[in-house]
Design brief:
Strand order of the largest sheet: 1-2-3-4-5-6-7-8
Helix content: under 10%
Order of helices and strands: HEEEEEEEE
Radius of gyration: 19 Å
Number of strands: 8
Strand content: 25-35%
Structural class: mainly beta
Shape: globular
Largest sheet: 8 strands, antiparallel, barrel
Distance between the termini: 58 Å
Length: 154
């Protein structure tokens, strides 16, 4: 049971009911369909380090992608204004990744897709919920993040 609630059976000698049993992680039909249709051997267009950096949305603000401390190759995504939205990125297919939030109770893992310019640089990053069960209040699907490019010094 989430939100720190305790089942009444923890205070009595009653056996736990199914409502109090731990919830199993499940995949909804939309997730199952996406996994079945995915191109398993479609690597990202760029080296993983090329996706690192700061991205900004005009409404939300910034998100960063950086190497995970102490690991080789793993990436972490962090939303600047929402600390709970921090999680590991894993490659899904092509230039699409999945962010799995550290706060698992959010039930809001998302696809993170990058669009490239003709020269191979990143044009933008978009997100979409993986599950149809993700609460509508996670409006990251409405955001368009563009890479922040450092000012060039003349």
């Amino acid at each position: 049971i989430s939100r720190g609630w305790r089942c009444p059976s923890t205070f009595t000698a009653m056996p736990p009911s199914s409502a109090c049993a731990p919830r199993r992680v499940r995949t909804c039909p939309s997730q199952q369909a996406a996994l079945a249709a995915r191109a398993l051997h479609a690597p990202p267009s760029l080296a993983l380090t090329a996706y690192d950096g700061e991205y900004v949305d005009a409404w939300y603000g910034s998100v960063t992608i950086a190497p995970a401390p102490g690991s080789s190759g793993k990436r972490i995504m962090r939303f600047s204004r929402t600390p709970d939205l921090t999680g590991a990125l894993e490659h899904f297919q092509h230039d699409t990744f999945i962010v799995r939030w550290n706060e698992r109770h959010l039930n809001a893992d998302a696809y993170v897709s990058f669009s490239l310019n003709p020269d191979g640089s990143i044009e933008r990053m978009k997100m979409a919920p993986i599950s149809t069960e993700t609460d509508f209040s996670y409006d990251f699907a409405d955001l368009t993040f563009v890479p922040v490019t450092p000012a060039t010094v003349a």
